[in-house]
Amino acid sequence: MFESIGILSLTIWLPIVAGLLVLATGGKDGASGGVDGQRTLALLGAALGFIVSLPLWTGFDSTTAAMQFVEYADWIPLFNVHYALGVDGISMPFVVLNSFITVLVVLAGWAVIKTKVAQYMAAFLIQSGLINGVFASLDGVLFYVFFEAMLIPLYLIIGIWGGPNRVYAAIKFFLYTLLGSLLMLVAMLYLFFVSGGSFDILVWHKVPLAMGAQMLLFVAFFFAFAVKVPMWPVHTWLPDAHVEAPTGGSVVLAAITLKVGAYGFLRFTLPILPDASHELSWLIITLSLIAVVYIGLVALVQTDMKKLIAYSSIAHMGFVTLGFFMFNSWGVEGGLVQMISHGFISGALFLCIGVLYDRMHSRNIADYGGVANTMPRFAALFMFFAMANAGLPATSGFVGEFMVILGAIQVNFWYAFLAALTLIFGAAYTLWMYKRVVFGPVANDRVAALTDIDAREFLILATLAVCVLAMGVYPFPVTEVMHVSVSNLLEHVAHSKLLP
Fold first, then answer.
1. 8 A C-beta contact, residue 91 and residue 148
2. What is the pLDDT of residues 475-492, one digit of tens each?
3. Each residue of 294-344: pLDDT tens digit?
C-alpha cells in the first residue's frame, strides 16, 4: 500500500510515458506538422516532469533525516523485492535537477535535430524518468534495474545522433559502465543473504560485517561507482563519449549521469561499509587528487573544446569524491553542492560549444577567433560560464570547491593545497580556451558570417546563468536541505559496524 500521493512515481513514470507517446508518433519526420508536434509533445512531457518534481522541494522537511515522500508496494514477493521509493536531503535535489535539465535539453535540440526527431526526444524523456528512479530507489533490485536501464537511452543517443566515431564511443561507454555494474550486483546478492533475505537499502545500512567482507564489498561498489563518476584511471570512456555525443547527450552526461556514481558512494559505500571506507579513504583521496591535478593539466593541452570541457568535468568531479571521503560536513556538503553546480556549469558550457558547432560544424579551437565581434550576446554568456568553471567567487563554481577545501584542510593541509590547485588550472585551461575562441580580430570568413544566439538559445543559457549566479550568491537554500541528512550520514559512518 502506498504511503503518499505518489509524487516520486510521477517524476519517474510521467517522463517515461511521455517518451513512449512521442516515440509512437515517430517515423513520419517528413509529414506536415509531424515534427513540430513531436517536439511540442516532448516539451510538454519534460515540462510536466519538472512541474511534478517541484513539490519535492517545496514540501520537503529539512529538519529530519528520515526518508520522505515514501512509496512502498510489493513487486516480486517471492524474492522479497519491493517497489520502494523515497528521498532525503542527499537525493531529493538531484531528482529536481534532472527534471529541470531535461526541459533545457529538449529545447536545445528543438531546431538542431532534423532526423528521427521523435526517437531523439523520446530517448531523453525516458532517460530522465530512469535517472529519477535511481535517485529515489530504496530497494537494491529496483536501484540496479534503473541504474542499468538508464544506460540504454544514452547509448542510443550517442550511437545514432553522435559524431563520426559514435559507434566506438557508444560501445566503449556501455561496456565500461556495464562491467563495473556487474560487480555491484554480486555485492548486492551477498548483502541480501547476510541481511536475512532483504533488498531494503536502509536495512543494509544496519548490517554488521567483518572487515574482510567490507573490503571486498568496497571494491565491488567502487568499480561500479568510480566508472560512472568517472574517477582516474577509469575515466577514458568519458572524453570519447562527450566528443561524439550530440549536444543534448553531452549536457545530460555531464549534468546528471556522472552524479549517479558519486551518489552511489553516499547511499551505499559510506553507510554500508563505514570501516572499509575509513580504511581505504587514502585510495579515494589519492585518485581524487590525481584527477584534480593531472587531469587539469591534461585539459590544458586540448585542442578540441568539447574534449577540454570533458576533462574539466573529470577534474571537478574529483573534488566531489575528495569531499565525500573527508568524513566531515564541510567536505560532504561541499561535494554535493559541487555536484549540483557542476550540473549547471558544465551543461551550460556544452550548450555554448553546441551553439558554435551548429554554426561552424567545428569544435577545434584553432578554427575560431574573434567570435565576440559577431556574437556579442553569446560571448557575454560564454564568459560568465567560463568564469564560473574557473571558480569565480559569487558563482556556484566557487561555493562547492571552497567548502571541499575547507573540509580538506581540517584533515590534512596538503590535501587542501593540492585540491586548491584546481582554481589555478581551471582558470588556465578555461580562460585560455575562451581567449582563443572569443577575443581578438575575426579569424576567418566563417567566423565573420556567424549570427548571434536567437531567443530560444538565449532563454536556455540565461536560465542556467541565473541558476549559477543565484546559487553562488545565496547557496543557503541548497545547503539547508541537505545538512541534516549529511549530519546523520556522518554520525552513522563514525560508528563501527564490524562483527564482534
1. no
2. 898 899 998 999 988 888
3. 888 888 888 888 889 888 888 888 888 999 998 888 889 999 999 999 889
Q: What is the spatial distance between Cα 310 and Cα 101, in angstroms, rounded to a whole number?
A: 18
Closest by alpha carbon to 416, among 305, 323, 321? 323
Closest CA relative to residue 340, chosen from 363, 357, 320: 320
SS3 for 376-440 is HHHHHHHHHHHHHHCCCCCCHHHHHHHHHHHHHHCCCHHHHHHHHHHHHHHHHHHHHHHHHHHCC
- The helix (run of H) or strand (run of E) holding residue 75 is strand 68-76
Q: Which three cell numbers stand for residue 306?
A: 568539447
> CA 282 to CA 312: how far, in whole Å?
23
Tell how far CA 288 is from the center of its chain.
Answer: 17
With contact defined as beta carbons under 8 Å apart, do 50 and 77 qualify? no
Cβ(289)–Cβ(308) under 8 Å? no
Please, are residues 453 and 378 in contact by the beta-carbon 8 Å criterion? yes
pLDDT of 2 reads 39
Q: How far apart are CA 341 and CA 391, in angstroms?
A: 10
What average pLDDT does the structure give for the chain?
Answer: 86
- Each residue of 259-273: pLDDT tens digit? 888 899 999 889 998
